[in-house]
Amino acid sequence: MRERLSRRGGALAGARGGRPEAGFGAPMGCMAAEFLYRITPTRPDMLETGPTLEEMLATQAHFAFLEAARDAGVVFAAGRTLTKDESTFGIVIFRAVDEAAARQFMNADPAVEAGVMKAELFPFRVALWAARPSDEPAPPPRVEVPILDEG
Question: Which of 11, 8, 7 is closest to 101 using CA atoms?
Fold first, then answer.
């Protein structure tokens, strides 16, 4: 039985007792490693023909799971390619205290747990991070040019 997730004390916690699961994700500020899991649909045709009820419920629960993990400071980013064939995949970049905890987190994803998605775990390190770009183009950079006194 999968436990519901809630936010208590800055960490993901199981619904039983509200205490953080041992090693289940790691909120911002904790000594933790970064990981990425790549997910692919077990039935790629669901993107073209539409999901079954089970697939729809699992993907909705998957999104809610990732939102809760993001709000708890565990997930940095999550998204998917916009292709609708067998090349499609999604990624989740997150923190965990170690590889075992990362695997536990990945396997607790409702879409993985339900068998709607297959997941593969990778150790990862974020090298660059930027705020999400706005719809407006960035202004040109300001360049300060010193004025030389020729006198």
Answer: 11
Q: From CA 82, how far away is CA 141, in angstroms rounded? A: 32
pTM of the prediction?
0.69
Domain spans of the chain? 24-124
Report the amino acid identity of residue 54.
Answer: E
| Residues in a beta bridge with 124 | 34
Tell me the pLDDT of the chain (151 aa) as tens digits. Answer: 333 343 333 334 333 233 234 345 555 556 689 999 999 999 989 989 999 999 999 999 999 999 999 999 999 999 999 999 889 999 999 999 999 999 999 999 999 999 999 999 999 998 888 876 666 666 666 656 556 666 5
| CA distance linking residue 39 with residue 119, whole number of Å | 4
Q: Does domain 24-124 have CATH number 1.10.150.130?
A: no
